[in-house]
Design goal:
- This protein has 118 residues and is mostly helical.
- It is built from 3 helices and no strands.
- The radius of gyration is 25 Å and the shape is rod-shaped.
- This is DUF3040 family protein.
- Keywords: Membrane, Transmembrane, Transmembrane helix.
């Protein structure tokens, strides 16, 4: 029940705790976001290092190692992008769904109990 001193924001926060929706600022989602960003940065750095490594030698074995490092850099960048995208969208959709639930509850409160009543 909403009391006279409770604001809409307070009621929304209380309903979020009742729904047991975790706050994205708390927990591991922030850690995963930072890890995704770090991997997105590390990927191109590995590719650049491999490029420089391959151009500073004429040894074919070292150049092949540089190719492997460059491919690893691409894979790390793609994985980092996927992790970042997953956790950033999850945080957004979690609160969007909670907001939709709140709005539908308010809409249901405004509807008459008897559908045939005017």
């Amino acid at each position: 029940m909403m009391t006279a001193t409770e604001t809409r924001a307070d009621k929304f926060a209380r309903e979020l705790t009742e729904l047991k929706i975790p706050d994205p600022a708390v927990g591991r989602s922030g850690l995963w976001l930072r890890l995704g960003v770090a991997l997105m940065v590390l990927g191109p750095v590995l590719a650049i290092v491999a490029y420089l490594m391959s151009h500073n030698t004429s040894d074919a074995l070292v150049q092949r190692d540089a190719i492997i490092i460059a491919l690893l850099g691409i894979a790390v960048g793609v994985v980092g992008s996927a992790v970042f995208l997953r956790y950033s969208i999850t945080g957004f959709l979690r609160f969007w769904l909670a907001r939709q639930s709140y709005e539908f509850a308010r809409l249901g409160d405004r509807l008459p109990a008897d559908p045939t009543a005017p």
